[in-house]
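Note to self: the last two entries modelled the partners one at a time, which told us nothing about the interface. This time every component goes in together.
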Amino acid sequence: GKYEHILVEKKGEKQNVGVITLNRPKSLNALCNALMLDVNAALAAFDADASVGAIVLTGSEKAFAAGADIKEMQNNDFSSNVRNNFLCHWSNMTNIRKPIIAAVNGYALGGGCEVAMMCDIIYAGDKAKFGQPEIAIGTIPGAGGTQRLTRVVGKSKAMEICLTGNMISAQEALQLGLVSKVVPADKLVEEAVKLGEKISSHSPLIVTLCKESVNAAYETTLEQGLRQEKRLFHATFATDDRKEGMTAFVEKRPPKFTNN
Ligand code: HXC
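The predicted structure of the combined assembly is written out below.
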């Protein structure tokens, strides 16, 4: 196929949920450079596909991803990292405008946890394990592990996770708000696809604005975020889908969104 390290398909009754499955089983989906290029290419393709309303990113039952590929980076040095902007392209996935749901079974460690946190929503299987074990191999998280995690779980927990390298369970991740739902491992992808279908039932245009607005809370000050939210809210009134949504409510019928 087109990709070496991932599988790509569309799921859901209306085939409107893109599913990307990390598929490098021999190394527990270690995120080598080629794999991340595959992931970002597949995400961009789904983002551009008008039939897709949401994207699910998942791994295997044993591992979502056990981190950046340690074997690939073990002989790197500082100057080549700077020259090549090592791993910088990972965060391209944060420019995807459709919602991305991480469906995490098994290990989400190091870069695996960081990639999950770059997604918009995380669902976990009941045996999932999250952690930032970089400290144990003489480095630190490099793709948001000290930043996104701290914003989500607060300083004390993030410090504990990053400084010990200890893993946390799916249940603890739920308690901390790192994941929004824990489901039996064998139902995980199904549940994530259902979530994707629900999101896809809304106006894609408005979903894009809504994702952008929630992200403002994450990336800006409260004042800036509130101002941006208000503008985006105002802007929805320039769309056909806003008109249709409210008209359909008043007429007691389901809306027919046109993405306009
Ligand atoms: C390369 C990896 C790997 C990784 C596992 N493997 N994780 N290869 N990079 N991150 C390989 C192993 O070498 C082994 O290959 C095979 O996958 C199976 O792994 P085992 O260790 O034998 O499995 P198990 O005993 O079940 O232990 C599972 C595990 C352990 C607890 C997840 O594999 C582990 O600790 N992995 C490393 C976790 C880690 O430190 N991640 C952070 C990486 S640093 P062989 O060939 O021996 O069979 C990072 C930086 C992010 O992510 C920065 C981003 C910018």
